[in-house]
């Protein structure tokens, strides 16, 4: 997902049987190591490949609106209506999820006093998208997963113009009690986009 490498760190340390090799980038830390009187050409190495291969949708289509149009109404999400149980473990383990809800609290001692609290929440759990009048968006689990997946690997990058929100850590894959793989979901999304575009081109050629 393009998040395997960074230069934004203060120091890098690699421990081995031979000792420690250190690269210090933060000037405030240099003083702690200067008295050692040793220098090293160590630079950290980053993971360059992963056994799990992931292709985000923008690898086959550079139009985020087209990607959203193709995937929003596609039946690929229907299988998750029964597989996903809406527990929210994928979002609570995600380093980039920040959804919250707001609750008003009153006190029994003085009902005229209270407070409004912002509480960590999840777009995958029941009730998160409920509205006044009994209305609610994304009642089905597959619809919630579609919203989350598009946000992580399409919508965020379309708005910010940088990287995808998903960093490819795999925590959601590890946490899901029903073994739903977000990596597989991303690849399915890309396959759907690729197949749809190919079918459109073939139809246009005819």
From TrEMBL:
Q: Where are the transmembrane segments?
A: none
Instruction: State the species of origin.
Output: Aeromonas veronii
Report the residue ranges that make up the 4Fe-4S ferredoxin-type domain in this protein. 73-105, 156-185
Q: Which Pfam families match?
A: Fer4_22
Gene3D superfamilies this protein is in?
Alpha-helical ferredoxin (1.10.1060.10)
Any idea which GO molecular function terms this record carries? iron-sulfur cluster binding; metal ion binding
What name has this protein been given in UniProt? 4Fe-4S ferredoxin-type domain-containing protein
Q: What is the lineage of its organism?
A: Bacteria, Pseudomonadati, Pseudomonadota, Gammaproteobacteria, Aeromonadales
Q: Which domain of life is it from?
A: Bacteria
- List the InterPro entries hit by this protein, alphabetically: 4Fe4S_Fe-S-bd (IPR017896), 4Fe4S_Fe_S_CS (IPR017900), Helical_ferredxn (IPR009051)
Report the SUPFAM superfamilies cross-referenced here.
alpha-helical ferredoxin
Keywords in alphabetical order, please.
Iron, Iron-sulfur, Metal-binding
